[in-house]
Amino acid sequence: MNDKEQQEQQEHKFILRGLKDIDYTDIKRIMDRVYKGMGGAWEPEEFGALIKQFPEGQICIEDNGKVVGAALAILVNADAFENKRHTYEDVVKGGEMSAHEPEGDALYGVDIFVDPDYRGLRLGRRLYDARKELCETLNLKSIIFGGRIPGYGKHSHDMTPAAYIQKVKDNEIYDPVLSFQLLNDFHIKKIMKNYIPEDVQSDSYGVLMEWNNIYYEKRQKLFGGRKSYPRIGVVQWQMRPFDKVEDFLHQAEFFVDAVAGYNSDIVLFPELVNAPLLKNFNQENPAEAMRSLSEYTEEIRMAFVNMAITYNINIVTGSMPELRDDFLYNVAFVCRRDGTWDAQYKLHITPDESQYWGLKGGDQLKIFDTDLGKIGVLICYDVEFPELSRNLADKGMTLLLVPFLTDTKNAYLRVRRCAQARAIENECYVAISGSVGNLPKVENMDIQYSQSAVFTPSDFAFPHDAIAAEATPNTEMTLMVDLDLDLLKELRQQGSVRNLQSRRNELYEVVWKMTEQ
C-alpha cells in the first residue's frame, strides 16, 4: 500500500488544540444539536469574548480540520464561587464573561460538548484530561463547575435532588452527565437550585463539582505537548485458540482497556498476535494457513485503530501477516490515538519463516512521530541487526518497540540480549513483548517462550541492571513502566560514556540504500 492509498484510508485525524475565532461555525453547529430546546449555540460575540479574555482555557478537538468537541473555561477565585450560591448566568454574565478573573486560582468550566456523531469515542474524557493538564500547567488549585443532572427530571416527583445524587453515586441510577463526571475524579461540593432555570431535564438544579490539583505549586506541562514521563504498557500474550475473529478482538480489547485504565500512553502486543486464529485453517499446510490468516488483517487493524481512539492510547499491534501483490509479509501497525496509523514491515525473515510460511522481507525502515516522541518498531529477528536501530537513533528515536515470537529459551535470549544491547548502543529505551503458552495441533506454532521486559541504557541515572521491568516468564500478564525521556537527554550530553556522540563518523557510518519515503 503506497502513502497516498494509506492517507485515503485514514478515517480520523484527531488534534487537540486551542480554539480560534474562525472555529465558531463548527461550534455553532455542535451546540445547536447538543442544546436543542435550551437556546442552542452562543452568539459569535459571546464566543469571541471567551477567546479574547482567556484563550488558553478554550480547548477543542478537531478531526481532519473540523472541530468535533470543545471545552470552555474561565479563571475565578475558588473561594468566592464555592462559598456562595451562584447560577450559570453569574458565570457567563450575559455572554460578556466578566466573571473571568485573570489572577484567579481556579479553572471554572463554562461548557463542554462533543458532536453527537462522535459519541462513543471518549472524546469528552480527552477534553476533561486536557483541562486537568491546563490546571496543572497554570498552577491552579482546582477545577470547579456547575454540572447538570439531566436524569433527575424523570425522578423529581418521587425523590429529592440529594437522594437522586446519592443513588447516582451508589451506581443505582445512571445519569449521563453526573455519572461521567464522577468517573473523571470530580467530587460533589454542593447542590445549586435554579442553576440553569431553562434546564427542564435537571429540574433547574445543578451540582457544583470540583477536581483538586494535587500538584499545586509544582510546575507541569501544557496539554498536547510531548510527555516527559510517558507510561508504556507491555502485554505478555497467552496463545489460546479462538473460533472467531470477534473472540480474538474481545481478548485484545480487554488488555487495551486494562492498560489504558492505568493512564498508559502506549501499549505493545507481540509478534503474530493473531496466530491463535490459525486453528481455523489447520487442515491446510502452514504456508496456505498463514495466507488464510492474512484475510483477517484488515479487519483487525481497523479494530485496533478504533480502540486507540476509544481508549485514548497509542497501540503497537504486534505483527500479523499481510498479503500484498501475491507476496506474504509480516507487518506491525502503529495505531495512534489521534486516529492515524502507519506500518512497519519485518525486514529480515528467518529460515524457518521462509520455509514454512513463505514470508518475504519488507524494504522500508520507518520512524514514527507520536505524542510521546519518536519511536521505532523492529519485529523480532530485526532487532538482531544493529544497523537498523542505529539508523533509527540517527533520526531521533527514543523508544524502540520489539514484538517477538520465540519457541525456546535460547531463541528468546537472542532477542533479549540484542534488545539490551540496542538500548545501550543507542541510548534509548527498548520494550520487548512476546507470547506464552501453546497452540495444540497448529503446525509450526507448537510452543512459545517469553519474558517480556523494558530495558534502559546503563548509567547511574537508570536501574543498576539496566532493566526497568520484566514479566514473570511464561505467564500471561502486563507490565506498566514510566519512562523519563529527559534522562535520555542528560545521558546523551553528560553520561559516563556517550555512545552516540563518540562514534567515529569519519571512519564509518550506516547508509540506507533504499529510497526513503
TrEMBL record:
Record family assignment: Belongs to the carbon-nitrogen hydrolase superfamily. NIT1/NIT2 family.
SUPFAM superfamilies the UniProt entry points to: Acyl-CoA N-acyltransferases (Nat), Carbon-nitrogen hydrolase
Keywords, comma-separated and alphabetical: Hydrolase
Annotated GO MF terms: acyltransferase activity, transferring groups other than amino-acyl groups; hydrolase activity
UniProt-recorded name of the protein: Predicted amidohydrolase
Pfam families cross-referenced by the UniProt entry: Acetyltransf_1, CN_hydrolase
Taxonomic superkingdom: Bacteria
Residue ranges constituting the CN hydrolase domain according to the UniProt record: 230-485
Record-annotated N-acetyltransferase domain positions: 14-214
